[in-house]
Amino acid sequence: SYLESVLDKNEVVYPWMIDQDSSITDREEALRELSEIQSILHESRYCNREGASEAAWNDGVTSRVLFLAMRQAQGVRHHNITVAQMESSLIPKDDTVDDGDVEDGLGGSIRELLACVPRERATINQTMYGPVRFNPAGVSIETKSKWASDGRAQLSVWIAAWLQQMRYLRAVSADPEGNAWESSEIYKQPINMKMPLIAATKGMWHLYLATDRRDKIVISSLFSIGDTDSLVGIYNLIKSLRILALWVNGPFREFMRTQVLQTSSNAANI
């Protein structure tokens, strides 16, 4: 096949590796996607060879991978929030974390809920950064250009703050007229949703899972979801990200509706 002709000599595509459920059925569209993947591979190898900065990796590789993966995802997109600052009140204590893509469409309910809380907590995430203030973040990605750090420390702090904010907003939603939300029993209850996290170090992308416990957050290492070091690796990565986008559009969206915003799935303002 044409794909096999452009693979490196050490890359093999077996029949079981072919995506039979792909939404791309047009040959020209498939070739355009392959061309973009080849360009991403070229840039990834350049960044790796030249010791490029984290910003260069984000601009030349990570963002392009995410744009390509999310191209056909309805209601889901990625945001580069490297300049976003976490709200200081949400920074977790050191002992609350153990090692072990952005969704929209809920705008009306989110703004209604945030109108009930103090200004410094009026965000659906853990930051007041504009593009994600009203759009729940389903998957957090930390990128690193050096192997000295795999991004888990930053991801742990980031997701701990997010889960704390979800507990807070859930308590507000349960009692909008109250004001002692952080001392309520519902606030103390763990968030019943395991959250995916991704650490992208150079070209390697690894999936983690954050589980909220009553007194701490447990971060579990799962597996590699692909890489940008080969054509096959990028195809694996794109497919993995598209599966995560389906999760964001399904279980995560329902979690935000029913557990945080506490609205019915057919509410008029969702």
Fold and architecture overview:
Helices cover 43% and strands 14% of the residues. It is α/β, with parallel strands linked by helices and 270 residues long. It has one domain (20-260). It has a five-stranded mixed β-sheet. A two-stranded antiparallel ribbon has the order 1-3. Mean pLDDT is 82; it is low at 95-100 and 265-270.
Quick one: how many beta strands?
A: 7
Mean pLDDT reading: 82
Helix content: 40-55%
Main β-sheet, spatial strand arrangement? 2-7-6-5-4
Protein name: PD-(D/E)XK nuclease-like domain-containing protein
Domain PD-(D/E)XK nuclease-like: 20-253
InterPro entries: PDDEXK_12 (IPR046797)
Organism: Fusarium ambrosium
What is the strand and helix layout of this fold?
Layout: H1 2-6, H2 27-50, H3 54-70, E1 76-77, E2 97-99, E3 102-103, H4 107-114, H5 130-133, E4 140-144, H6 152-174, H7 185-188, E5 195-201, E6 204-212, E7 217-227, H8 231-260
Parallel strand pairs: 2-7, 4-5
Antiparallel strand pairs: 1-3, 5-6, 6-7
Key descriptive features of the protein:
five-stranded mixed sheet; 270 residues; elongated; two-stranded antiparallel sheet; alpha/beta; disordered C terminus
What's this entry about, in short?
Pfam families: PDDEXK_12. The protein has helices at 2-6, 27-50, 54-70, 107-114, 130-133, 152-174, 185-188, 231-260, and strands spanning 76-77, 97-99, 102-103, 140-144, 195-201, 204-212, 217-227. It is of the alpha/beta class and 270 residues long.
